[in-house]
Design goal:
- By secondary structure, the protein is mostly helical.
- It has five helices and two strands.
- A two-stranded antiparallel ribbon has the order 1-2.
- Helix 2 packs across helix 5.
- The protein starts with a helix and ends with a helix.
Length: 170
């Protein structure tokens, strides 16, 4: 029942934590029964580079040390943010899936649904034309700026988390 209330990402995280607990428990049993099976041969080093995460500077309107909310409030906000972000990604995937069919329909009424295309009020700069103008006037490259930094919230699984979950599973 709880699985039905969780997002797919949260369910994967919970399954991963339960798997980690099961692994710790299995290692504990194995250490008593056959300790030699716990010795692992080192795997050959494979050189792969993970994409670097470039840290951005903090914004200027941060809490002062004496204004920081309680850790429980921060944890609740981080969990809410993570779940909402997961729901948004899931909704985006669903929209893309359904749009594949809807994009191919001619405008019209289909049952109780009206499908049509309307002009967008959003406008974007035509970079190709701007580049052509810059080149035409010898102005060099088009000046660009970075986007605003993205907020990234990640759950850190600590040894204490595994210990609490191990006790709860026992």
């Amino acid at each position: 029942m709880i699985h039905l209330l969780m997002s797919p990402r949260t369910a994967r995280t919970v399954r991963g934590l339960i798997g980690a607990i099961a692994g710790v428990a299995a290692d504990a049993v194995r250490s008593v029964i056959a300790p030699a099976t716990l010795v692992e041969q080192p795997a050959p080093a494979v050189e792969t580079e993970a994409p670097a995460v470039v840290e951005a500077p903090d914004p200027t309107d941060l809490f002062a040390d004496d204004e920081l909310p309680a850790v429980e409030d921060i944890a609740r906000a981080a969990l809410g943010y993570d779940l909402a972000a997961d729901s948004a990604r899931s909704a985006d995937r669903a929209k893309r899936k359904h749009r594949k069919l809807l994009d191919r329909l001619p405008a019209g009424t289909y049952g109780a649904w009206l499908v049509r295309r309307v002009a967008s009020s959003r406008q974007t700069v035509d970079l190709e034309k701007v580049r052509a103008i810059f080149e035409q006037h010898g102005l060099g490259d088009v000046p660009m700026r970075d986007n605003a930094p993205s907020l990234r919230v990640e759950r850190i699984v600590t040894a204490a988390d595994v210990e609490v979950l191990t006790e709860a599973a026992a």
